[in-house]
Every structure is written in structure tokens, then in C-alpha cells.
Design a protein that fits this description.
By secondary structure, the protein is of the alpha+beta class. It has a single domain, classed as Winged helix-like DNA-binding domain superfamily/Winged helix DNA-binding domain (Arc Repressor Mutant, subunit A). It contains 5 helices and 6 strands. A 4-stranded antiparallel β-sheet has the order 3-4-5-6. Strands 1-2 form a two-stranded antiparallel sheet. A hairpin with a 2-residue loop joins strand 3 and strand 4.
């Protein structure tokens, strides 16, 4: 009976805190409005890095969404390098080895960039096609 009572006395504050932890970053939709994207079944990881507390939601081994880094946008683990920035540089013609050399002080690796490309590919393949566009 006591266990039932404990469950019934759960406060809305705890539920709200859980919900807030699940929202990890914002994205812009087609109309330019910002919307929150929830963490899908990923747990918040907390560890010490460089003497500081580092919290992040892992999307892969190298790509994370850290609420306190770059506004929660996707970054490479332990860096402030945004994934969309590196993908933009790749799209503009830069090569992976060139980017690894340019950002060697941040320990950016080819594996990390390849993981970002794979995650972007999966996201594009799983999204619904845009409506109202003619090709």
C-alpha cells in the first residue's frame, strides 16, 4: 500500500523537469518558426571533461546534443564545432582530410565527420517529402 501511495504523490514539478530534459535542441521548420526536437530514447550522459561537468545526449559515438553548448545544437563531442557547420563546409567543396587538418586542435577526426554524414543521410531518408514542390 505504501508503494501505491508513493506513486500517487508524484509532483507535477518532477514530470515537468523530465519533460524539459527530453527537449534537447531547436530546429526551424519550413515557415521559419523554431520548434523543439525531443531526445528520442536517449539518456542524458553526465561526465567530467577537463575538470568541468559535461552533459550531453549522444546521437552517436562522436555527435552529441549538449544543452549547454551552442544552444543545444548538434556538435562533435567535447568541441564547440557544430555539425551543420562542418556539413556546410563539405557541401561547399572542402574535403574531409582538409577539415581534419584544419580542426586538428579540436581533435576532429574522419570517423566523426563520417558519422555526421551518416546521421544526416538517415535524417533525410526518414523525413517526409516536402509538399508543394515541383521537380
Amino acid at each position: 500500500m505504501n508503494s501505491t501511495k508513493a506513486r500517487a504523490t508524484r509532483t507535477p514539478k518532477k514530470k515537468r523537469a523530465t519533460r524539459e530534459r527530453q527537449t534537447i535542441y531547436t530546429v526551424r521548420n519550413a515557415n521559419g518558426k523554431q520548434t523543439s526536437r525531443p531526445a528520442r530514447a536517449k539518456k542524458l550522459v553526465v561526465e567530467m571533461y577537463g575538470g568541468e561537468r559535461y552533459e550531453y545526449y549522444p546521437l552517436g559515438k562522436y555527435v552529441v546534443a549538449a544543452p549547454g553548448v551552442c544552444g543545444g545544437q548538434l556538435t562533435f563531442k567535447y568541441t564547440r564545432i557544430r555539425v551543420n557547420f562542418i556539413l556546410h563546409l563539405l557541401a561547399s567543396g572542402r574535403s574531409i582530410p582538409d577539415l581534419v587538418e584544419s580542426y586538428h586542435q579540436s581533435n576532429l577526426t574522419q570517423e566523426a565527420i563520417q558519422e555526421a554524414i551518416d546521421l544526416a543521410r538517415k535524417a533525410l531518408n526518414s523525413s517526409r517529402p516536402a509538399t508543394g514542390l515541383t521537380v
